[in-house]
Amino acid sequence: MSKKYFKVRGGNKLNGKVTISGAKNSVLALLIASVLTDKQLVIEDVPAIKDVFDLVEILEYLGANIIVSDQGERKIITIDNKNLEYKPLLIEQITRFRASYYLMGVMLGRFGKCELLIPGGCFLGPRPIDLHLKGFESLGCEIEEFEHEGNEALRITAKSGRIEADTIFLDFPSVGATINLLLASAISNGTTILENAAKEPEIVDVITLLNTMGANIRGGGTGVIRIEGREALKGCYHQVIPDRIEAGSYLMLAGLLGENVIIDNVIPEHLDAVVSKLEQIGINMTIEIDRITVTGRVDKLSPVKIQTGVYPSFATDLQQVMATMLTQVDGYSEITETIYPDRFKNCHYLNDMGANIEIKRSENFGQAKIEGGTKLSGEVVEATDLRAGFSLLFAGLVAEGETEVHNINHVLRGYANIVKKLQNLGADIELIEE
Ligand code: UD1
Questions:
Q1: Are the C-beta atoms of residues 403 and 8 closer than 8 Å to each other?
Q2: Is 245 near ligand 1, meaning CB less than 6 Å away?
Q3: What number is the average pLDDT over the span 389-415?
Q4: Which of 172, 178, 241, 391, when mutated, tests ligand 1's pocket best, judged by the most ligand atoms within 8 Å of its CB?
Q5: Whole-angstrom distance between the N-terminal and C-terminal Cα of the chain?
Q6: For residue range 359-368, what is the model confidence (pLDDT) as tens digits?
Q7: Atom 26 in ligand 1: which residue has the minimum CA distance?
Q8: Alpha-carbon distance 124 to 339, whole Å?
Q9: What separation in angstroms does the CA of 331 have from each of 11, 253, 334, 359?
Q10: Parallel, antiparallel, or unpaired: how do β-strands 428-433 and 380-382 relate?
Q11: pLDDT band at 126 (very low <50, low <70, confident <90, very high)
């Protein structure tokens, strides 16, 4: 098997424009939602990332006819489900990425049953799916765990043959559980109410698609979502929202290394938490309707304290990238991680490169205590997960000398055209394949 890694040389200033792709965490749910109809769905602005191609393989396995076409760097995916049929999903592709758990919701909505291997994804510490399963039970399903060729698998069956509406209070506003329960109950008997639902923009995007497909869902973006179940859904056209995590990652990179960098195709409101922290640090930005331009920085950057939380708080998916930035800000900064308390594997590698970060763990959260202003130097590092990968790549672009970032499948799973986008900004990065 060929080995891929990034070779990065630090020190270049960045200039120019980067266009943000469609949101990874939205598009996977949107493409999976296609299973709810036997008509045609056209999704525009699909990011060219590995998770999407893995998902296309799964949908084709179910019988979907899929055409991927290009419009510049953006992709359009047309899915025709005329021949889609029920099949158990005991296939390896399911374990490659976490969002494949949305197949449970759509299979239950459309066929009243599903069998699948337990989904994979980045290892960020324990990532249970108990809230999804408790929700399915409230919607009239029975759940059985079993083993398939040495892998854990689930069999979920709607007792009456279809989803039965109910009111569900989520113990935690989980993104995954909210979307999965939405997908399951869009076709159902009666009105389901999700209380303490997640409010992330990706949820609103999924609701927009489902409503265009003929669903009746109110309250997206608030803590209470009402889903009036339909008999069937139709096809439609939908454009994916821009990826706020990709945008936030490039914003931080530009904040530290940019002279004049335009981050194009963004919804600035989705980036309020990160923009506000960047302003506090001392980064100058101009915000327009669908772009943010980083225009420079004050002479002396200020350290900050950050706490991750559910939307609209600072996203857990951006804290590892922020850690790299804060290693370059003189003084003491702190990151408190409340969603995935062990999500600090990047910090060990940052320390190998010369950073001074101490990790502390308590029962409910983890903390990175960063003494900033340290020089970083090139190293061979491992992308332990998707966002850790960007954090280390970023560190390589700051560091003196050459950095190799290995295990980059994680990065390619989430950042579309990353090498080309960075090269266009003037970064010294190569994708090496051996
Ligand atoms: C999604 C995103 C991920 C992001 C995360 C938090 C996708 C594919 N992934 O992940 O990039 O980091 O939101 O914004 O969209 N939890 C439970 N039981 C459950 C479900 C979740 O205890 O059944 C806990 C998790 O362990 C975690 C917290 O709830 O501590 C948040 O998880 P959740 O919002 O569900 O995240 P994901 O959907 O996995």
A1: yes
A2: no
A3: 95
A4: 172
A5: 9
A6: 999 999 999 9
A7: 127
A8: 10
A9: 22, 19, 10, 17
A10: unpaired
A11: low
